[in-house]
Amino acid sequence: xxxxxxxxxxxxxxxxxxxxxxxxxxxxxxxxxxxxxxxxxxxxxxxxxxxxxxxxxxxxxxxxxxxxxxxxxxxxxxxxxxxxxxxxxxxxxxxxxxxxxxxxxxxxxxxxxxx
Length: 115
What we know:
Protein name: Zinc ribbon domain-containing protein
Low-confidence stretches: none
Helix content: 40-55%
Number of strands: 2
Organism: Lysobacter yananisis
Shape: elongated
Largest sheet: 2 strands, antiparallel
Number of helices: 4
């Protein structure tokens, strides 16, 4: 089940997909992106307008997985929990990446395991 994490791009706590959920969501997003590009060409509209029509099934699927209605197609791409690092020891927000050496939110250095 999706878990709630702080998203530094969205600047709020949102449901993040686990790897199993992402394995199901990824193909839905890829197919929707192909339809969005085709819709843009065929109807001579911008990507935002095309997303609302051709990307609707991706929004619906994300909502079924998480219970949250996302309105940004791009946001779904980065709402994958494994893309983030562990929580900061000081502020508790997740590090931006698993390899991050300091917290981008508060600047606190990551506590590394001795060795």
